[in-house]
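Look over this entry.
=====
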Amino acid sequence: STGFAPYEDALEVMGVPYVTVAGRGFYERPEIRDVLNILQALADPWNDLAMAGLLRSPAMGLTDAALYRLRWREGEPRAFYQALVDGLDDLDESDRQSAIRAREILAELRPLVGRLPVGELLKRVLDRTDYRAGLASAHRRYWQNIDKLLADAHASGLVNVSSFLEYLQSVRDIGVREGEAPVEAQGAVRLMTVHKAKGLEFPFVVIADASRQPRRGSEPAYLLPEIGLTFRPDRSEAMPLAYRFARWLDGRQSEAEENRLLYVAATRAREKLILSGHCTLGSKGVRTEGWMKALAKATDLDIEKLIGEPACWHHLSLGEGVEIAAWMAPEKVDAGRASEGVPEKMWPHSDEQPLYKPIEAETVEVLDAELDEEPARDWRATGEHVHPPAAVIGLMVHRALERWLFPGQEGFERLLDSVALNEGMVQPAQRAAAIQAASRLLERFMQHPLKLEIDAAEPCYHELPYVRPVPGRSPDSGIMDLLYRFEGQWKLIDFKADELRDEDDLIRAIEKHRHQMQRYAEAVRSLLGVSPSVQLCFLDAMGEVMIRDVG
């Protein structure tokens, strides 16, 4: 049902009435629930659930901590509405201002409940809370839904808020979702899931997006009657045969379930069944997916022929008086350039100065800079004599440093071999070359004084993840290679296995990672309350280990 929205939009544009059955209805959309909850809180401020939703909503913006402080005083619970009246001294300044605003809005709008029609009251709620302004940067569908709710409230003519909410609840219980414009169920297109269509029949049935490929991600464990319980081990270890067999069995069962759903969907049609899908042109020819692939194979439909003759109907008999007709839409045609003879309209020149400076969007970087780098190449299908890629060698080094495993220690080569296998190095000679290259870098680091310092450090945290709130922005998150304390000083280290051939390469590498390290240091300061020294450790800088401070 999550795919209903594009079809609802298209039907609305074409003026075709529709009713959507099942799925998350119009009145279950987050922005609609939020506004209706505000109405509920206005009608009954002693309803703690409604008041919690009001205070926590984007319209008011109180934090979870603020709700907790309002709810509990001296170990005893109290009503949120009473808490707003009693006093707000326990709240932080920003939460206190939000709570004062909520109290003022309640005091202003509550006397209007039951006196104004619901439509007029709802309009005042939206205006007083600036709710539309809050949705200005969101998808247009959100504020269009708010406008539709307002139109529905006006159309109902109800004055009693509780009666209006009860009416909407009855709509939810029925499970019918209205279209964006009022429609009559008779003669309207019905959108529904396959499960909701069970036991029903219709003269015409359209299976939309029949080429949809269901997502089949692997699970960490499988419990199947054929082989019992199987687990997926650590990603750096080879995947057990039993786990792969269980995953294959689970895939077969999922495929059988998809075929069953296709049978249910196709047999809902009494007179005509229409399927809509797409195909993809690739290096290996035409590819179709999902139900469209299964049906094309079952009916011997020649997709290549359809592509060769677009916008033409192709008829095929299946026997027993059953026929199918296939049609391939022509490719989209660009509109092309405007006619040369049409003069271009120019905006008249003016020497006046603009009233305001142009608004410049500020670029905010909150995630690891490494996440923006080009995705690692898939190294499968590598030859036996191909030099192992640097990206895989670097990954092997980081995995060893994460476990603090070094050449000569038990499990070292097994770890690196499993990492290489996981990255697609199937040739033993290539894996051996990669292990040798990674071992060389780690042996070099073992001779450096930094290794002895880290061994003596207490505490010492490898691959340390963090999430740090940033006022006015999205949270900052990342994973630090190493954070440790030595002789009373906290130190932040990030290891780099890139090959740096000269001083210029070294300078560029420091500048490339400077912002990332500054973010890590700020996270340590804000979360731990300490200021660490920040260093980059280059394992292959002109053939040696180099440590550089990052200011």
Summary: The first strand starts at residue 18 and ends at 21. The mean pLDDT is 79. The chain has four domains: 26-174, 194-298, 370-438, 452-549.
